[in-house]
């Protein structure tokens, strides 16, 4: 467990570092920023974040038997536009400007938001990871029952299927079906299980809440360039994501300590 | 800046040249820059030097107008340019330079507020000729040192006086509505204009110059006083609340005295000049003039003072009392909501949860955010967008709940989609134009080679409206198809409403003149049909009231009967509202039906996921808030906004043939039609439809306890709705109280205040009406509470 803790901390640090790097690169190498060049900057941040998110989370899965690396990557890549579409829909419902001139900005912004939140699409593999971690202490079955208390019924049906190697033949649609369940559990019920899920769940919520708050200065008559769509919303999202990441690191540390205490006892 | 002889001290945003205002430096440029000098209103009068002021002010070179910034003004050394050309026959021989700002600003760059920094501004006036020492050195001057260490005198004038003073300087008639007084210091800059005629007595030239100036000033004040008097008289006659009569009598007296003295003086002045005294520079005459000037000045000062006290000063005590009453009403609302809660708890002690749920906190937060947004003028301007944002947020919260409950995902998505469609149609000016052209704006079909004027595209809006009407009629029939105790009334109400829908269609066909009907027939159809529709609507309301009077007992299928009542009430209103709203009417009505249905269904979701038992919990506030926000959004979707030019005045004349329009104008009738258009979908229909939020939580045949619980829930829904409206109105009132001296008070805050207060009064009235209409006349304590609460 301690190793998984340090692993999670490393993951979140990597995300924060990559975020900082992308801002640094944008500012110092290309000398652009969100205010002067919103589209290239958003594209750059998305470009840096996307592969790191997808590759890192795909690597984290520990049973390549059930879910191959490339399958996870593929799922992540496919999940990206779906997440972007949902984000764009949400933004437009809330009042993002519609029009050809805003189209590109909205697309890049929603891609970025999708990167911040789409990690959950790869969760299926990670849940299996968790099961394996649990099986270190006992049998896989006990691990399964332990988890199933917190997981939806649909997943319980799905898990034995994985374990009986049906997972190999599960078509892409059902893969998404399972991801949907995870997504539902994490985002609708806010019930993260395990430290790694904290790292996904809290920053994603942070990004969304940050973006929501970031939209508030837009109608003010300050006539500042950063009040344009989607600059302040992006700033809000990035800030929310960062705060969420830091908070989730705190959670992971506390969780790890508690677990160690339990073990020692 | 601040040179000795021709001081030029000013920073501001307007240049006044030759009576024309031309935009000077941009506000953006000035913002954030530390202003030089302070922000008080200053008239800097030059120290004695070679200067003669002139009456006809010539146009200053246009490059002055083009100057980017007032600092450039000094860089170009305007004063030098003026001086160089100020000699006899020069271009600027008769130039008076006045530069002023329309407002000041705080160090943060804020402006428009009521603080002295924001209200006071600088004024620079320069004459190229010497002013009269004795006149220009008034009493209210302070001496300050300029950057060169040279002493300059600074004084202030009222902005009220500016217009008349400039009018006097230019020799144009005084503005009719101005009650200002010609300022003697500014006017003194014109001294010497008349000296060009020349006097022969060099020994007392200065003296006679002074006398001449005073004579002129007294003349100007005479006209000034006459104009102000005329305005005050006209105002007192035409105004509903004029000035108090004793004040008017006092003013009358002052004016008469001054006038009497003046006529005597004029008589004297008609006498031969030599009698006035050749050598001894007639000090008597100057004293006389001085007295005269003072008399007029006192009169004008009294008028200003009276007008200030009546027009611009707020009665802070009354304001505080009003605000206090509003705040008290909030607590009364809360108290009665709590009381109905307790009643519920009394009948179901085991099930009611006393805890404040997450949803209540969320709802309170949303309402508070909306309320707080009214404290800023930017958010008031974009109120529709803010309401849409908050409604969208509640939609997303609902989506989250429905995803977690794995139920009613369809409704949640429909709600968001409908919101989106309404928003797009509003933004593309749908309310102003027809539906078809609105879609044209979004999808420029010209690029696709489709002719916008093609018959199909012209017909699309009509077809959409017609389809919406048909769907509405079907929805009505479906909702009334339940089991009812009074079958006859059902067919009557349904039939009348659907007949009205049919008439609306006929009306539109006649209006668009598709069939090429004869003009006379068309005219009759166009004025007759709307009247029939209004009459049917009114008749249905009367019938409903009669039924309410007859219906003494609670029906066995109480829930159904309540549903029937609500639907009938809504359907009785709907044809009138749809007709008045015009072509967008059916679509808006259909959207509100869909939106309302989604809100009701999503409200059910929460009830069912929280526990299995039926309708015993306290009212869930989230659907009520959504209901309220949706109503606000509909106000903006229908093309209104909180300003008087946001009213759709055309709607007041629906059903009036244009040629007869002025013959038949009836203020009350037209006002009612306009109010129905303005508040129809945003106040009347939502509040009358409130029972729908409750009914579906209960079984068709409720037992006694459930029946009471339903009524208590309904009371709570109405109270919560009233509370939400009161909270937002309270914030508006607080905002107007704070910003009562703001620059935009008439343009923005006052209309918003009027709309919100009228909305609140209407809301409270409708809540009372609903309580009377929906609650059985013989009933439990709860409804008596409800009625007494109102």
UniProtKB/TrEMBL annotation, chain A:
Pathway terms, separated by semicolons: Glycolipid biosynthesis; glycosylphosphatidylinositol-anchor biosynthesis
Subcellular locations according to the entry: Endoplasmic reticulum membrane
Main localization category: endoplasmic reticulum
A Gene Ontology term for the protein's cellular component: endoplasmic reticulum membrane
InterPro entries listed in its UniProt record: GPI_biosynthesis_protein_Pig-F
Spans traversing the lipid bilayer: 9-27, 39-60, 72-100, 195-215, 235-255
GO BP field: GPI anchor biosynthetic process
Keyword list, A-Z: Endoplasmic reticulum, GPI-anchor biosynthesis, Membrane, Transmembrane, Transmembrane helix
Membrane topology designation: Multi-pass membrane protein
Name of the protein in its database record: Phosphatidylinositol-glycan biosynthesis class F protein
Organism placement in taxonomy: Eukaryota, Viridiplantae, Streptophyta, Embryophyta, Tracheophyta
UniProtKB/TrEMBL annotation, chain B:
Keyword Ubl conjugation attached: no
KW Ribonucleoprotein (keyword) present: no
Transmembrane spans: 316-337, 358-380, 455-476, 491-510, 531-550, 587-604, 624-644, 671-698, 718-738, 753-775
GO biological process, alphabetically ordered: GPI anchor biosynthetic process
Gene3D superfamilies: Alkaline Phosphatase, subunit A
Molecular function in Gene Ontology: mannose-ethanolamine phosphotransferase activity
Domain of life: Eukaryota
Keywords: Membrane, Transmembrane, Transmembrane helix
GO cellular component: endoplasmic reticulum membrane
Database matches in InterPro entries: Alkaline_phosphatase_core_sf, PIGO/GPI13
PANTHER family in the record: GPI ETHANOLAMINE PHOSPHATE TRANSFERASE 3, PHOSPHATIDYLINOSITOL GLYCAN
Name of the protein in its database record: GPI ethanolamine phosphate transferase 3
């Amino acid at each position: 467990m301690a190793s998984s803790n340090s692993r999670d901390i490393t993951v979140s640090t990597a995300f924060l570092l990559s975020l900082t790097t992308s801002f640094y690169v944008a500012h110092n190498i290309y000398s652009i920023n969100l205010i002067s060049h919103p589209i290239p900057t958003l594209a750059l941040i998305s470009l840096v974040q996307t592969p790191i998110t997808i590759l890192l989370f795909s690597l984290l899965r520990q049973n390549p038997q059930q879910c191959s690396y490339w399958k996870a990557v593929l799922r992540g890549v496919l999940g990206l536009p779906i997440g972007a579409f949902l984000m764009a829909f949400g933004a437009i419902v809330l009042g993002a400007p519609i029009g050809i001139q805003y189209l590109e900005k909205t697309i890049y912004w929603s891609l970025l938001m999708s990167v911040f939140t789409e990690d959950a699409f790869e969760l299926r593999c990670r849940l299996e990871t968790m099961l394996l971690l649990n099986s270190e202490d006992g049998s896989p079955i006990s691990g399964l029952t332990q988890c199933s208390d917190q997981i939806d019924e649909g997943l319980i049906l799905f898990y034995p299927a994985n374990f009986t190697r049906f997972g190999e033949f599960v078509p892409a649609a059902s893969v998404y079906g399972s991801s949907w369940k995870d997504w539902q559990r994490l985002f609708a019920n806010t019930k993260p299980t395990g430290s790694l899920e904290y790292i996904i769940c809290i920053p994603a919520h942070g990004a969304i809440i940050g973006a929501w708050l970031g939209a508030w200065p837009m109608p003010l008559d300050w006539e500042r360039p950063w009040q344009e769509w989607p600059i302040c919303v992006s700033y809000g999202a990035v800030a929310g994501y960062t705060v969420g990441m830091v908070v989730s690191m705190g959670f992971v540390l506390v969780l790890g300590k508690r677990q160690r205490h339990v073990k020692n006892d | 800046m601040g040179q000795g002889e021709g001081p030029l001290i000013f920073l501001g945003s307007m240049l006044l040249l030759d009576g024309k205002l031309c935009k000077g430096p941009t506000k953006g440029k000035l913002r954030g820059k530390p202003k030089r000098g302070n922000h008080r209103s200053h008239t800097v009068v030059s120290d004695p030097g070679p200067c003669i002021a002139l009456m006809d002010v010539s146009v200053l070179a246009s490059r002055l107008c083009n100057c980017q910034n007032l600092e450039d003004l000094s860089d170009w050394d305007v004063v030098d340019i003026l001086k160089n050309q100020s000699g006899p026959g020069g271009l600027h021989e008769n130039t008076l330079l006045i530069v002023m700002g329309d407002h000041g600003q705080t160090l943060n760059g804020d402006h428009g507020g009521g603080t002295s920094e924001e209200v006071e501004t600088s004024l620079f006036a320069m004459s190229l000729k010497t002013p009269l020492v004795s006149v220009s050195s008034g009493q209210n001057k302070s001496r300050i040192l300029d950057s060169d260490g040279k002493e300059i005198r600074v004084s202030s004038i009222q902005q009220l006086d500016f217009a008349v003073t400039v009018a006097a300087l230019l020799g144009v008639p005084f503005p009719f509505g101005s009650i200002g007084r010609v300022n003697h210091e500014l006017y003194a800059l014109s001294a010497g204009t008349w000296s060009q005629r020349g006097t022969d007595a060099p020994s007392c030239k200065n003296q006679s110059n002074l006398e001449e100036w005073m004579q002129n000033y007294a003349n100007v004040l005479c006209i000034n006083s006459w104009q102000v008097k005329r305005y005050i008289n006209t105002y007192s006659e035409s105004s509903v609340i004029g000035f108090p009569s004793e004040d008017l009598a006092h003013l009358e007296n002052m004016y008469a005295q001054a006038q009497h003295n003046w006529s005597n003086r004029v008589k004297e002045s008609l006498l031969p000049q030599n009698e006035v005294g050749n050598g001894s520079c007639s000090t008597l005459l100057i004293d006389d003039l001085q007295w005269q000037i003072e008399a007029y000045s006192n009169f004008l000062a009294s008028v200003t003072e009276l007008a200030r006290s009546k027009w611009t000063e707020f009665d802070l005590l009354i304001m505080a009392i009003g605000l206090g009453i509003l705040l008290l009403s909030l607590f009364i609302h809360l108290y009665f909501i709590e009381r109905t809660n307790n009643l519920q708890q009394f009948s179901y002690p085991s099930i009611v949860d006393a805890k404040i749920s997450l949803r209540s906190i969320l709802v309170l937060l949303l309402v508070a955010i909306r309320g707080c947004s009214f404290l800023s003028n930017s958010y008031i301007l974009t109120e529709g967008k803010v309401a849409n944002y908050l409604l969208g947020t509640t939609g997303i919260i609902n989506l989250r709940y429905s995803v977690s409950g794995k139920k009613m995902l369809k409704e949640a998505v429909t709600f968001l989609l409908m919101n989106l469609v309404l928003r797009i149609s509003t933004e593309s000016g749908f309310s102003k134009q027809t539906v078809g052209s609105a879609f044209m704006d979004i999808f420029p079909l010209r690029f696709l080679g489709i002719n916008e004027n093609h018959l199909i595209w012209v017909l699309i809006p009509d077809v959409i409206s017609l389809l919406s009407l048909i769907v509405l009629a079907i929805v009505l029939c479906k909702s009334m198809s339940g089991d009812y105790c009074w079958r006859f009334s059902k067919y009557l109400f349904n039939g009348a409403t659907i007949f009205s829908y049919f008439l609306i269609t006929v009306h539109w066909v006649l209006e668009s003149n598709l069939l090429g009907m004869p003009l006379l027939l068309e005219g009759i159809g166009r004025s007759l049909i709307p009247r029939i529709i209004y009459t049917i609507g009114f008749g249905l309301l009367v019938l409903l009231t009669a039924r309410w009077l007859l219906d003494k007992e609670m029906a066995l299928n109480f829930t159904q009967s309540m549903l029937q009542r609500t639907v009938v009430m809504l359907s009785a209103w709907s044809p009138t509202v749809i007709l008045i709203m015009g072509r967008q009417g059916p679509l808006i009505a259909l959207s509100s039906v869909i939106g309302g249905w989604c809100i009701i269904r999503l409200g059910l979701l929460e009830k069912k996921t929280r526990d299995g038992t039926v309708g015993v919990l306290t009212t869930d506030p989230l659907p009520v808030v959504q209901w309220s926000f949706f109503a606000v959004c509909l106000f903006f979707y229908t093309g209104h906004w909180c300003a008087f030019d946001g009213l759709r005045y055309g709607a007041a004349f629906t059903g009036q043939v244009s040629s007869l329009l002025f013959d038949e104008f009836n203020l009350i009738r037209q006002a009612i039609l306009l109010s129905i258009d303005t508040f129809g979908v945003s106040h009347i229909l939502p509040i009358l439809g409130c029972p729908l939020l409750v009914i579906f939580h209960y079984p068709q045949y409720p037992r006694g306890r459930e029946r009471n619980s339903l009524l208590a829930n309904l009371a709570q829904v109405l109270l919560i709705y009233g509370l939400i409206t009161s909270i937002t109105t309270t914030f508006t009132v607080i905002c107007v109280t704070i910003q009562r001296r703001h620059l935009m008070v008439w343009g923005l805050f006052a209309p918003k205040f009027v709309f919100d207060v009228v909305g609140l009064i209407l809301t409270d009235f409708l809540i009372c009406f609903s309580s009377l209409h929906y609650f059985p006349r013989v009933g439990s304590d709860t409804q008596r509470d409800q009625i007494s609460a109102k």
